[in-house]
Task: inverse folding
């Protein structure tokens, strides 16, 4: 039996893939450490599934190389790659019992029956579905099918585990349970795992590192907190988490710092992302929780449009005198009410470095 | 629950159809059964003489067996050629599928007589196959292809092919393509994936295709007679001779009933096999 108990690193080296003439994956390089859980995050059609199918060997990439544990595996067909995959629709074999589904990969590898059934028992215990061994997939709920698909993929001890939007079909509570479950199982097995999702909360909460894709390109690959706090592109900044966007003109450049004049008057300091020249038109992003009401001279004046007390936080929608609209979020003190609509206020960044400056388009 | 409205229709609406069936299917069948129990051609005496005559006559029995055997051979040939065709169809791009589908159903759009004569032209002594063999030097004298068992099987297989291929296409295209990928990711090679996943899930289509082809092949009077010629006798022609040429109605009726029972028996046996394998396929 080919078992890979040691954790394996996975390197995607400059992968490019086209369907006909349309570019689905564009020069993606990902260096994933053994045992890591990485989330592939991106909007629909950005190439997430394509990338997974390239790793699994279902499609041959146009350019680049897939390297597992230091060895290029591009020449290997899927059944020689020892990669476990859980499909979005689970793809359980409908004509086989749960036990036979889980045993399938072991049988394909010529494992003897005694070992097979021991391993199946072990896997079903792991996903807590031992009682379902003799059922058929159609007799299981969506969440149970999902766990069987996971057990089936893990039974052969794959070196890499790929999960394509595994929670998309589950309701919210079950989804949270399964996220925790998968993370627990992944930790225990030490399997290098890639989980595809377009749910950013899922990506941020589960993954050691998050790879953000857009139009087939890798926008950023970093720890979840870093992706949120220091987005490396305008796309990442607006796609991950909520963001206020303003346009302005870059007045002054000082290393990686810049000063932007805003259309309604006032100037804000921010972090430059990418090379920008003085006088350029720029877009600036700031997250709602990084804005605060202030009486300082550089705060931008405006009026409250509406205030929403959301339990632990209060979100105010502010219309600036300059015309732009901003969201301001902050913690809500005990008994605090939202400011009434129409109140005159002024806002400015509460934290230095929270303003990020990107080139205009 | 969704099926409830279907049965909620007034049963009276089915009466015309029921009447049609009673008049043109059940009544003739009853008459047929009745006639088969006369011992003489003038229909005066009841008895089992006609059945005894058939079942004790080696010649009659050999006609029955060779007819059923012909059905089996045609069905197997259709399955053997039809499966790759259906497989190719399912895996082809849309545009090619359109062309392939036209080719597949073309036999249904032309008359059986026309298709059969085409086979006579192809298989004849001066036919396309013989001309080709002679000009390639693969044969010195024209081969006898027409009026042979092989000729009948091939011609029938071509004529009945759509009946096999269409159910197979339906079954194959219902299979989630991810299942094949899942199988290969789990370490199964192409052959194992086919045997363990694709084939079991295609069984209902294979069953349907085989039943249709078998039933059509054993009753294909025109093709059997024209391509088979006078040397080979199958049940439909035997029946025809007894009724039309010899006017032996009771014997012809008995032949029909025996043929009917034999076919029903074969189909039941086949269904039973299918039920078993479907049990394996779906629990
Ligand atoms: N078989 C195919 N032939 C042609 N184009 C394809 C094929 N599969 C995907 N594409 C295209 O490639 C791009 C990337 O597709 P992919 O399925 O990888 O996206 P995705 O990120 O998984 O999206 P989603 O979140 O909707 O699943 C899309 O623009 C899609 O239309
Ligand atoms: Mg996808």
Result:
């Amino acid at each position: 039996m080919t078992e890979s108990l040691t954790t394996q690193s996975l390197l995607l080296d400059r992968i490019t893939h086209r369907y006909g003439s349309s570019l689905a994956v564009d020069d993606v390089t990902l260096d994933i450490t053994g045992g890591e859980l990485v989330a592939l995050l991106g909007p629909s059609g950005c190439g997430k599934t394509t990338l997974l199918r390239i790793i699994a060997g279902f499609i041959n990439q146009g350019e680049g190389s897939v390297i597992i544990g230091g060895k290029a595996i591009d020449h290997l067909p899927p059944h020689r790659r020892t990669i476990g995959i859980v499909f979005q629709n689970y793809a359980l074999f409908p004509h086989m019992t749960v036990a036979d589904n889980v045993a399938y990969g072991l049988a394909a590898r010529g494992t003897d029956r005694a070992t097979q059934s021991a391993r199946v028992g072990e896997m079903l215990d792991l996903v807590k579905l031992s009682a379902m061994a003799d059922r058929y997939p159609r007799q299981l709920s969506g969440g149970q099918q999902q766990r069987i698909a996971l057990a089936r993929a893990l039974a052969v001890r794959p070196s890499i585990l790929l999960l394509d939007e595994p929670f998309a079909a589950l309701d919210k509570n079950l989804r949270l349970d399964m996220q925790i479950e998968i993370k627990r199982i992944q930790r225990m097995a030490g399997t290098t795992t890639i989980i595809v999702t377009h749910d950013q909360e899922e990506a941020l909460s589960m993954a050691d590192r998050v790879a953000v894709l857009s139009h087939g390109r890798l926008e950023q690959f970093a720890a979840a907190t870093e992706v949120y706090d220091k987005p490396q592109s305008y796309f990442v900044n607006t796609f991950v988490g909520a963001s206020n966007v303003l346009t302005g003109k870059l007045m002054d450049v000082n290393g990686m710092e810049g000063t932007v004049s805003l259309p309604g008057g006032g100037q804000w300091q921010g972090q430059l992302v990418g090379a920008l020249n003085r006088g350029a038109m720029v877009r600036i992003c700031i997250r709602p929780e990084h804005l605060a009401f202030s009486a300082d001279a550089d705060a931008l004046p405006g009026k409250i449009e509406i205030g929403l007390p959301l339990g632990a936080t209060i979100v105010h929608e502010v219309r600036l005198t300059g015309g732009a609209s901003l969201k301001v979020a902050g913690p809500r003190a005990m008994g605090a009410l939202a400011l009434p609509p129409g109140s005159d206020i002024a806002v400015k960044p509460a934290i230095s470095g929270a303003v990020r400056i990107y080139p205009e388009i | 629950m969704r099926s409830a409205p279907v049965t909620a229709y007034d049963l009276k609406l089915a009466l015309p159809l029921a009447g049609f069936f009673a008049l043109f299917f059940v009544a003739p069948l009853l008459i047929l059964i009745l006639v088969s129990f006369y011992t003489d051609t003038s229909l005066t005496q009841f008895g089992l003489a006609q059945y005894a005559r058939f079942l004790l006559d080696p010649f009659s029995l050999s006609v029955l067996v060779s007819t059923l055997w012909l059905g089996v051979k045609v069905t197997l040939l259709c399955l053997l050629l039809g499966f790759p065709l259906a497989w190719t169809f399912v895996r082809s791009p849309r545009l090619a599928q359109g062309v392939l589908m036209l080719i597949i159903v073309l036999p249904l759009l032309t008359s059986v007589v026309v298709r059969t004569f085409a086979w006579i032209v192809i298989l004849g002594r001066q036919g396309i196959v013989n001309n080709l063999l002679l000009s390639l030097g693969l044969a010195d004298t024209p081969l006898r292809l027409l009026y042979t068992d092989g000729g009948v099987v091939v011609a029938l297989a071509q004529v009945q092919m759509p009946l096999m291929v269409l159910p197979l296409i339906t079954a194959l295209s219902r299979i989630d393509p991810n299942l094949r990928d899942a199988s290969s990711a789990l370490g199964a090679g192409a052959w194992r994936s086919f045997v363990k996943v694709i084939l079991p899930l295609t069984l209902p289509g294979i069953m349907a295709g085989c039943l249709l082809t078998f039933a059509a092949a054993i009753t294909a009077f025109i093709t059997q007679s024209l391509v088979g010629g006078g040397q080979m006798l199958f049940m439909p022609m035997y029946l025809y001779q007894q009724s039309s040429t010899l006017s032996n109605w009771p014997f012809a009726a008995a032949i029909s009933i025996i043929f009917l029972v034999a076919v029903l028996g074969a189909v039941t046996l086949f269904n039973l096999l299918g039920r078993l394998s479907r049990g394996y396929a779906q629990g």
